[in-house]
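RECORD TYPE: inverse folding
INPUT: structure tokens
STRUCTURE:
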């Protein structure tokens, strides 16, 4: 019987989360309590809150001797990093969690780390992921981890589905859905059901499909969890009435955009586009399809190439960990690739400019300082015509040339962000107008000439400016309105 209240809170974090939270809040000064609260915040979709809770306590626990709470904190930190699409950080935390779990001889915590590692590498190393998950399931059947077993079964089902072993995948999904209701949280149940639907449809299991679709609708009505709603509508929208899809998905999108959830946004905009087209509203169908494509481009091909190298390096490290010399060599290689991936995760591969991840980090750093922000949204006018007439390679050269021009105009303290496909963001913190720089940008772009075969062409930009504020969201909205007015007024100008 567990007598330590923090051990009780940890053991009940999935099965009795409200009681676990009450216990943790009662002992909030303890590091274990903050680890539990960070886990619960992550589990309930409050990723930013979880990040803010786990970061300082992880630093504190790292200083002392290896402990069970340090391993648990590392796992929570890995889950949070993965939820924020910081894959390199997630793998680094899992590496350390597995190492610490082995040092303290905690088989269950090691299995949790191996499970999460397998879930991340599934797409790039499915055979290794399958082996790890089968081992993890055997451990969880021996040493019960309430939510761990159905989640491992779900991930193994995904591997078999992707390998084409559909009946086997269905059996693992069914096994996962047999977990008790207090264990199978709505977000996990929704993920399993969403993965199960296309298999039941392909295999012709119509009766089971009706039963589980009704189960998902009931689940949808019983929760306000934004992640549950998004995942459910991705699955349900293929067979729901177009008007119903438009009503529910349109209401979800602003909430998801506030969370910067690119995966869900891309899929839901695609479903929304299909619904508009089904009703003959081709203009809104095309508009939402473009938005879907914009979000799909966020995770660049180059970043994932380096992520794959990182996964393979980690696997090689794991296989050679008994050989100290090989371990040191792989550790050095991992450090280099970790640094490369860290750089790629913060920069746009086409232009070398900052991306939204780096923007968010910089805004968080500025939030703790006195000073005001000024910014400008810069959009290439009629950029689609460049791609349509001269092709996407020519469009890429235009984007690169304008990015280079922006870097030449900016001061070392300014931040230049590739904010969208053909849209840039110029941010200045600490005072000083960006208007003179924007005028230089207008003049500089007007002086650019591009050569494509025997043809030459030029482009212009429109700029919306917002000055001297501390709320980035309001500033960006103001700049966007000003940009819209410039576009409506004839383009190739700026408005403050």
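DESIGNED SEQUENCE:
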């Amino acid at each position: 019987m567990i007598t330590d209240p923090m051990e009780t809170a940890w053991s009940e974090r999935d099965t009795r989360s409200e009681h676990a939270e009450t216990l943790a809040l009662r002992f909030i000064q303890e590091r274990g309590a903050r680890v539990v609260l960070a886990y619960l915040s992550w589990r309930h979709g409050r990723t930013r809150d979880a990040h803010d809770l786990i970061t300082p306590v992880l630093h504190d626990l790292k200083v002392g001797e290896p402990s069970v709470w340090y391993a648990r904190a590392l796992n929570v930190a890995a889950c949070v990093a993965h939820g924020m699409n910081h894959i390199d950080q997630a793998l680094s935390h899992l590496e350390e969690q597995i190492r610490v779990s082995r040092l303290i001889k905690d088989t269950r915590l090691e299995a949790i780390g191996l499970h999460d590692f397998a879930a991340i590498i599934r797409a790039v190393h499915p055979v290794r992921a399958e082996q790890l998950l089968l081992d993890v399931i055997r451990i969880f059947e021996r040493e019960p981890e309430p939510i761990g077993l159905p989640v491992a079964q779900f991930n193994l089902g995904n591997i078999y589905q992707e390998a084409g072993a559909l009946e086997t995948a269905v059996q693992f999904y069914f096994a996962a859905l047999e977990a008790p209701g207090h264990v199978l949280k709505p977000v996990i149940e929704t993920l399993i059901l969403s993965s199960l639907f296309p298999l039941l449809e392909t295999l012709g299991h119509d009766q089971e499909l009706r039963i589980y679709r009704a189960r998902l609708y009931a689940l949808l009505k019983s929760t306000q969890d934004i992640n549950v709603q998004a995942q459910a509508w991705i699955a349900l929208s293929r067979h729901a009435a177009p008007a119903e899809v438009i009503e529910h998905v349109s209401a979800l999108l602003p909430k998801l955009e506030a969370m910067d959830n690119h995966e869900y946004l891309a899929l839901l905009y695609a479903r929304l586009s299909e619904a508009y087209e089904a009703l003959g509203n081709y203009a809104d169908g095309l508009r939402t399809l473009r938005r879907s494509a914009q979000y799909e481009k966020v995770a660049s091909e180059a970043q994932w190439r380096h992520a794959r190298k990182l996964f393979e390096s980690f696997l090689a490290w794991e296989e050679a960990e008994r050989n100290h010399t090989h371990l040191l060599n792989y550790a050095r290689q991992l450090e280099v690739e970790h640094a490369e991936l860290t750089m790629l995760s913060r920069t746009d591969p086409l232009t070398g400019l900052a991306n939204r991840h780096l923007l968010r980090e910089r805004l968080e750093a500025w939030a703790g300082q006195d000073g005001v922000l000024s910014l400008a949204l810069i959009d290439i006018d009629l950029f689609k015509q460049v791609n349509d007439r001269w092709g996407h390679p020519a469009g890429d050269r235009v984007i690169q040339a304008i990015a280079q021009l922006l870097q030449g105009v900016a001061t070392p303290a300014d931040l230049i962000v590739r904010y969208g496909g053909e849209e840039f963001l110029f941010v200045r913190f600490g005072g000083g107008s960006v208007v003179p720089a924007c005028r230089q940008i207008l003049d500089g772009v007007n002086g650019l000439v591009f050569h494509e075969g025997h043809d030459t062409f030029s482009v212009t930009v429109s700029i919306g400016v917002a000055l001297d504020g501390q709320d980035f969201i309001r500033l960006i909205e103001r700049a966007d309105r000003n940009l819209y007015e410039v576009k409506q007024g004839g383009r190739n100008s700026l408005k403050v």
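NOTES: The two ends are 66 Å apart (CA to CA).
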